[in-house]
Amino acid sequence: MPMTASRNGESLPFDDRNQHKSYEYATLFELEEKLCSTMMRSTVKKLQSTLDYIELRMDAIQPEDTSAARRVYLHLMHAIIRTVYKAGFTLRDMMECDIDPCANMEQFATKQEIHRYLEEICLHICRHMLALRVDKNQRIVWEIKSYIDEHFNQDFGLEHVSELVKCSSTYINRLLKQYTGSTFYNLLTARRIVSSKQLLSLNDWTVCQISNKVGYNNVHSFIRAFKRSEGITPGQYRDLLLYNALELE
């Protein structure tokens, strides 16, 4: 006669019981992965949505069964601690104080209280990681802008800068758009145009010579970029400067 187990008052064959446990473990690991990934890599808003989702899933546990809820939350808390450790931190680093979250969970009487405690820790970690990402992103943007200012008169492109800061071209443009409102090539072009306008006003170099001086290998590319920026060609810009100078005399 096969062994049986009970679920919600009904008798289950042994194999079905094992299958149900496998489903429960799969669900638990899904919650763990979803929570830790969102906490470490996403925004507070998305993390809150994940926490609300977990709380909704926990509604399947009977309100009076606090011990069952505590076991789930303890599993999630251990996963949080492991995730933080793998990222090179400790929970003490994140919370800026000594803390034993697993022991603290034993103090709460309801699953709602346990959930709020887990939520508080997760949100704190998320904000900490967001601050680190912002600092890192600002540093990357500063490095790229500084490199453009120092090397705009040389022949280089986004791929070269991508190797220098060890970020993909797509990520660089997304950061620059977020922090400066411009793409890499727009920033580089703007810096070259500023320099070319100074050279056009201060010496008798030809447009071709100035084109080379500000980093263009092809004078036609320089003229097109200048006209897109200023609405007139470099030659017309120089003529306009001369005309204005004569008007002032």
* Percentage of residues assigned to helices: over 70%
Terminal CA distance: 113 Å
User: Which sequence of SSEs, written as H and E, runs from N to C?
Assistant: EEHHHHHHHHHHHH
Based on helices, strands and strand pairing, what is the structural class? mainly alpha
Mean pLDDT: 84
How many helical elements? 12
| Strand composition percent | under 5%
Major sheet: arrangement of strands: 1-2
Shape: rod-shaped
Poorly predicted parts: 1-23
Backbone CA Rg: 31 Å
Number of strands: 2
Largest sheet: 2 strands, antiparallel
Domain HTH araC/xylS-type: 142-240
Keywords: DNA-binding, Transcription, Transcription regulation
Protein name: AraC family transcriptional regulator
InterPro entries: Homeodomain-like_sf (IPR009057), HTH_AraC (IPR018060), HTH_AraC-typ_CS (IPR018062), Tscrpt_reg_AraC-type_HTH (IPR020449)
Description:
With about 250 residues, the protein is mainly alpha-helical. It is about 75% helix and about 5% strand. It is built from 12 helices and 2 strands. It has a two-stranded antiparallel ribbon with strand order 1-2. Strand 1 (about 5) and strand 2 (about 10-15) form a beta hairpin. Helix 3 runs parallel beside helix 6 and helix 6 runs parallel beside helix 9. The longest helix has about 40 residues, at about 110-150. It is rod-shaped and about 90 Å long. The N and C termini lie far apart (about 115 Å).
